[in-house]
């Protein structure tokens, strides 16, 4: 048990340095525990998977704040629980209002882009590709496979030879990093 704890602490420290294999190790080590914890609360496999993915994404983004005086699993469980509670609150506050005069469903427009629209799309795509090139190669690859080659998660599992959970977390992380790059370019 001591050896296992040392491996976890070592992986956490390496992950704090940005080591991707440590992220994968931690993900594989604790995925089932977090997933099972949320599944027991939701009784919905899709919701449990979604919260678990968001848990690891948030944990990996905030790994520098992890205090080694606590168990990593306990830290992950508290993140998962907080995300689950946030999700419950969101569901309770969501309301649907139908205003026929202002409803988007009643505004029908031509789906064909104008020549100006096509030019803007092309320029935006070139800019987006430049932003994507600023990501690490494995994040570039996962975004390319998902959004440009339009691969399903199952196809990506085969292509990358990685577990689906790892692919989903990497994609979520890649999108978050890409958003940060885009936002910093706007500033």
Automatic annotation (TrEMBL):
It comes from the Bacteria. The keyword Transcription regulation applies. It holds the Pfam family Sigma70_r2. Keywords: Sigma factor, Transcription, Transcription regulation. InterPro entries: RNA_pol_sigma-70-like, RNA_pol_sigma-70_dom, RNA_pol_sigma70_r2, RNA_pol_sigma70_r4_t2, RNA_pol_sigma_r2, RNA_pol_sigma_r3/r4-like, WH-like_DNA-bd_sf. SUPFAM superfamilies: Sigma2 domain of RNA polymerase sigma factors, Sigma3 and sigma4 domains of RNA polymerase sigma factors. This is Sigma-70 family RNA polymerase sigma factor. Belongs to the sigma-70 factor family. ECF subfamily. GO terms for biological process: DNA-templated transcription initiation. Residues 126-178 form the RNA polymerase sigma factor 70 region 4 type domain. Residues 32-92 form the RNA polymerase sigma-70 region domain.
